[in-house]
Fold this protein.
Amino acid sequence: MQIVSSAAAMQRLAKKWQRAGTRIGFVPTMGYLHAGHISLVHEARRRVGKKGRVVVSIFVNPTQFGPKEDLANYPRDLKRDLQLCRAAGVDAVFTPGDAEIYPGRAEGRYSTYVVEETLSLGMEGVSRPTHFRGVTTVVAKLFNLVLPDVAVFGQKDFQQAAVIQRMVADLNFPLKVVVAPTLRESDGLAMSSRNKYLDPEQRAQATILFHALQAVSAAVKKKTVSAAQLQTDLKEFITAAPLARLDYVEFFDPETLAPVAKVKPGTQMALAVFFGKTRLIDNARL
Ligand code: AMP
């Protein structure tokens, strides 16, 4: 497994593979890897085959964090990440520093961003106004460096996957975006690097997100319910976890992300919940 930290070296390697006709599968991450990330690696491998190359990037992208968010504290464990990647059969791990990805930014000389202007406005875009600008910018840059044929993203970040798919279509990136299912702990909590922040009490109550998704799924199987009613009901439902504070819950069309008034099977539901400073998200097709 190669470990590449310079942007130029990553692009050289990718170009070499490309010239040889080798398919490249790519999984962008912020590290502190868990089984959810590794499931994306396996999906990338399935897509490019044994003769292909799978690249994982590990980069805690500063531009997708708000000024009051957890950039400085974001969990990091590169040694363990590399072990997990090696065991999963990754060919190259790209571990750039900030100056490789944003040359001159520290000195105020970085000024180009990629902005998606529709799908990124709601939900996470409301709670985290500059988040998706950071995501689309870094992912576009990583695509230019890794030159993937296939890039795999998690359904866990449903809106992110939709924004990336739109960016790829709008900007003619020559690659296929694959969205892979959310891996969960045995009690239903979606795996996330941020789960590490939870204390034992918060961790026990964090299943409330999954339980909310399940409860609404079951309810809409019986009859169509208004989104407004469900939003009211969920505020009440969430009080079963006294440490939880609901940030948002939305019901929307999975293609357009447009909010729906009537919730039925096939509607997408997404929610964000704070436990102290830790913000967890989850979503499901009902
Ligand atoms: P992150 O390191 O949190 O930026 O996530 C990197 C990629 O892994 C993103 O495409 C996420 O959607 C995906 N991911 C995160 N958590 C999970 C999970 N529990 N199951 C599957 N994919 C995930």
Notes: The pocket of adenosine monophosphate is lined by residues 29-30, 36-37, 39-40, 153-154, 156-157, 182-183, 190-193 (CB under 6 Å). The chain has two domains: 2-180, 193-285. The two ends are 40 Å apart (CA to CA). The mean pLDDT is 97.
